[in-house]
Write a structure and sequence with these properties.
Elements lengths: L1 E2 L6 E12 L7 E6 L21 E4 H10 L5 E5 L7 H13 L3 E5 L4 H10 L1 H8 L3 E4 L20 E4 H12 L21
Parallel strand pairs: 3-5, 5-6, 6-7
Antiparallel strand pairs: 1-2, 2-3, 2-4, 7-8
Length: about 190
């Protein structure tokens, strides 16, 4: 996890944030675009997020303060880049978001099955999956581009709720999964489609 050398605060390397988004998940969302991505998908919508050394550092506390200031937000979307390159500070952010009664949507270029392997070796990645109310998984595939899909760019990408994540990875990640219900008032099926 990155820390501010002067304050010792948990920080994220981000490409940017969108304070009010209606395209990065259900409801009005605060979208955090992490910096760094190993997937390098041709036709990626956010190619500026690919470099591991680009972007800037923002503290988790400053991001949570911005979320707290807007009572209209349904939740926070973690996108990228690849969020699972920074699971430890994102866990802190997701825990704070959940404590505010908001939900967490995560976009990943990894499939859920690949995330299961990653999470089995990385407790922070497992914890981030556990705190996720909705996961949009899989790389962007330009040949499968479909502009009519809600919250996705290509037909191979899936929208998976917390119950689907647990069902798919439950046995593999049982030691990491605590009993965390979905965020209050959040319907994991809202806006989801196969």
């Amino acid at each position: 996890m990155s820390e501010d050398p002067l304050l010792g605060e948990a920080c994220l390397r981000v490409s940017g944030v969108v304070e009010e988004s209606i395209v990065d998940g259900p409801g009005l969302r605060y979208a955090v675009f992490t910096q760094g991505c190993p997937h390098l998908c041709p036709g990626c919508h956010n190619p500026q997020t690919h470099s591991l050394s680009g972007g800037r550092f923002l503290s988790v506390s400053s991001l949570l303060a911005a979320v707290r200031e807007n009572p209209l937000l349904a939740g926070v979307t973690l996108s990228g880049g690849e969020p699972f390159l920074q699971p430890a500070p994102l866990c802190l952010l997701a825990e704070g978001v959940r404590a505010l009664g908001r939900n967490v949507v995560v976009y990943s270029g990894y499939t859920l099955e690949e995330l299961g392997d990653l999470a089995a070796a990385s407790p922070p990645a497992a914890r981030l999956l556990q705190l996720t109310d909705l996961l949009i998984d899989g790389p962007y595939v330009q040949a499968l581009r479909d502009l009519d899909l809600p919250f996705r760019g290509s037909r191979n990408q899936r929208i998976l709720g917390a119950a689907e994540i647990r069902a798919a990875l439950g046995k593999k990640l049982a030691p990491f999964f605590l009993d965390i219900p979905p965020a209050p008032g959040y319907d994991p099926g809202q806006g989801a489609s196969p």
